[in-house]
Amino acid sequence: MKYIYILLFFFIGCSTKTNKHEFGIVIHGGAGTISKENMSEDLEKAYKNALKESVMIGYKILKNGGTSQDAVEKTINFLEDSPLFNAGKGAVLNYDREVELDASFMEGKNLNAGAISGSKRIKNPISAAIKVMNSSQHVMLSGNGADSFAEELGMELVDQEYFKTERRVKSLNRTKTIESNKTSSVIEQNYLSEKYGTVGCVALDQYGNLSAGTSTGGMTNKKWNRIGDAPIIGAGTYANNNNCAVSSTGWGEYFIRGVVAYDIAALVEYKNYSIKKAARTVINKIESMGGNGGVIAIDNKGNVAMEMNTSGMYRAHVNSNGEIDIKIYN
Ligand code: ASP
Questions:
Q1: Which residue of 53, 195, 267, 305 could cross-link 297, Cys pair, CB 3.0 to 4.6 Å?
Q2: For residue range 208-223, what is the model confidence (pLDDT) as tens digits?
Q3: pTM for the whole thing?
Q4: In the CATH scheme, what is the homologous superfamily, with its name and number, of domain 20-111+162-329?
Q5: Interval between CA 236 and ligand 1 midpoint (Å)
Q6: What is the 3-state secondary structure (H, E, C) of the chain?
């Protein structure tokens, strides 16, 4: 009998040691001038429901032993298919009244990455970015080339009309009026919520692997095939198992110049900053440059950060225990 107890203790001890990693997932649906005064109760509810539904898709994948890649992809697919967010269906319109989509994905295990920019036909840009990573020798494909690549791989392509919503048409018209009365360098805070928006997701799976993804329609009224930070590895998206995974949202030009996502990872790795301190430091840097936006990040232990210098950022987090936190305002 004594031996049976000893064996039992040994067994329990071993199984505790092989406990799987903490896991977790964080999403954002864009940062900007989002205030309670300008938000109807119904719209707030719609955003909260969409955030909850999408983050729970990823959480369930992680809980069932799925990979962070799968969790990030499926979560972002939901947000891309929702007309509420500036990604996939519901993306903002450019100067020519068209949708041009950007997305990027990175996995922290081996620093593999993929991105597409300026796509006009890919229904789910984040999935195309992952395909670039897994099924090509490249990291970033753009424009018609990105669309042809996706088509050759049998991905779903759609007409421009699929992406367009009445809300974005109105928003383009308003932006055109405002911008025609300003010099290009002057951008008013109070229409930034209409001009921007993006979706992003970062996740840590039970195997200790981090992934990050970002998908966007970019900036309303953009011209000249403008590309923001979202498809740029190191600016909009970054993941490294040694430190953390990051997805950015905001005024992309500043996030490119500030190399935001990589800068956060570098502070965690080289300066041993907590994820929160690193994210705050970099958002402060963007603010001092004159930019605005927000970031979500998760480190390789499951600690998270959701930092911004705007009045709001659609965001949600679920930890290993299934505890969920959904927020909109700063
Ligand atoms: N960062 C995106 C861009 O500049 C937009 C956003 O995140 O709101 O294209």
A1: 305
A2: 999 999 999 999 999 9
A3: 0.92
A4: (Glycosyl)asparaginase (3.60.20.30)
A5: 8
A6: CHHHHHHHHHHHHHHHHCCCCCCEEEEEEEEECCCHHHCCHHHHHHHHHHHHHHHHHHHHHHHCCCCHHHHHHHHHHHHHHCCCCCCCCCCCCCCCCCCCEEEEEEECCCCEEEEEEEECCECCHHHHHHHHHHHCCCCEEEHHHHHHHHHHCCCCECCHHHHCCHHHHHHHHHHHHHHHCCCCCCCCHHHHHHHCCCEEEEEECCCCCEEEEEEECCCCCCCCCCCCCCCCECCCEEECCCCEEEEEEECHHHHHHCCHHHHHHHHHHHHCCCHHHHHHHHHHHHHHHCCCEEEEEEECCCCEEEEECCCEEEEEEEECCCCEEEEEEC
